[in-house]
Every structure is written in C-alpha cells, then in structure tokens.
Amino acid sequence: MDISVYFPIWNKLNINEQQALTTSAIERHFKKGELIHTGGDCMGLILVTSGQLRAYTVSKEGREITMYRLFERDMCLFSASCMMRSIQFDITISAEKDTDALLIPSEVYRKIMENSAPLANYTNEVMASRFSDVMWLIDQIMWKSFDKRLADFLLNEANVEGTNILKITHEEIGNHMGNPREVVTRMLKYFQTEGMVKLSRGTIEIADENKLMALTEE
After folding, report:
1. What phi and psi, each to the nearest 5 degrees, are found at residue 168?
2. Residue 204: CB partners within 8 Å, gap ≥ 6?
3. Which residues are CB-contacts of 120 (< 8 A; sequence separation ≥ 6)?
C-alpha cells in the first residue's frame, strides 16, 4: 500500500525517511466493535485507510464520551502517546466499522520526527487539530443544552452515514455524548412528539431535518 498519500509533506522527507516509514508500516484490519487501543498502550500511530474509528474516554464510573472520530486518511497520534511526554490523559480507541489501517511503530516515527522539521510541524498540526476537537466538545458540554447537543449529534450522524435512517441505540448515543441512556431516551421521545424523529427498535429516523437544524441554531 502506498503510504505516501497519507502524508501531505511526503516530498519534503528524504529518501531514507520515506523508506523507514514505508518499510515499518504494518497493515492491520479491525472488525466492527473491536477494542484497538487503551490508555496504557503505546501501539504506534494509526493511519486509517478505510472504515471508521472512535476515540473516547471512560470515567471511573464507566461512563463514556466520544472525543473525536477517525475516517479515511485520518491519523491518530494518541495511540502513540508514549512518544509525546506532554500527553498525560488516556484515550481508548475502538472500531465503529470494519476498518483497514496502517500502523507505524512509535519509535520509528519519533526518530524521524526528531530529525525532520517538516514531519514535526505536520505532527504538531495534527495534534492541534485534535485538541481543537476536544476543546469544541468541552465548549458544547459546558454551554450548550442537551436538546441542542442531541439535535446536532443526530444531524452529524446522518451526514456521516449518508442517510436519515440511523441504526443506533439510545445507549450508543449516550456513550458518544457522555449521558445516561435514560436521558437520551427521554429527549428522543420529546423529539418524536415534536415530529422531529421517528423511533423504532434500534433505529432513529430523522423526520424533520429543518426542525432539528432550527433547534441547534436557537
């Protein structure tokens, strides 16, 4: 597999650096629902070639909240957090869909990054983007009411899946948003009475996209 397409700065690396990345990359396949990385691991950088991964944190009480998702061509640095001493929090990564990925060992990437300004700068850009995702999430949780957050989640989910019929459970939504299933269920039932969604077992259909969008903009 051509690894160069996943690095915009590939042509700024020398031939030895390119070769080191190419020869060290390991092709992996993860099945939907598979746990890929936990906080104590340092498995290496993950480059998603197809599929979808979820990065999330788990509280001491076992509650989850999604920090961000990884799609085709996305790179996950937190699975190689041991190479970045400033990273102090743990993230868990699992496959939301059957996923193919390339895994680059942490020590290989770190060695190249220490000597390559273009790769170091690119890595910092990726890291900044992920922290922006996390800060956006914190802002949503602190300042946006749950009904607006849920409406926004449903619209984003429909955009990702390419359909208004979402095969997702209330518990899964709760895990994404960091809220108990019961809270999600109550709000979805309210959405249903307002004609925004239609609920059935394991499925949520967006019935009125405009109403959901108007709710997020209030």
Report:
1. -150, 140
2. 154, 165, 166, 168, 188, 197, 198
3. 113, 114
Confidence of residue 40 (pLDDT cuts 50, 70, 90): low
Q: pLDDT tens digit string along 171-198? A: 999 999 999 999 999 999 999 999 999 9
26/7 Cα distance (integer angstroms): 16
Residue 20 banded pLDDT, cuts 50, 70, 90: very high
Euclidean distance between CA atoms 191 and 206, whole angstroms: 10
**CB–CB of 33/95 below 8 Å?**
yes
Round to whole Å and give the CA distance between 51 and 28: 12
Q: Which amino acid is residue 10, in one-letter code?
A: W
Look-up of token digits 């031939």 = 15
Q: Which of 40, 1, 51 is nearest to 21 (CA)?
A: 1
Q: Which residue has the tokens 């020869």?
A: 23
Distances (CA, A) of 146 to 113, 138, 180: 41, 13, 12
pTM, two decimal places? 0.81
d(CA 163, CA 204): 11
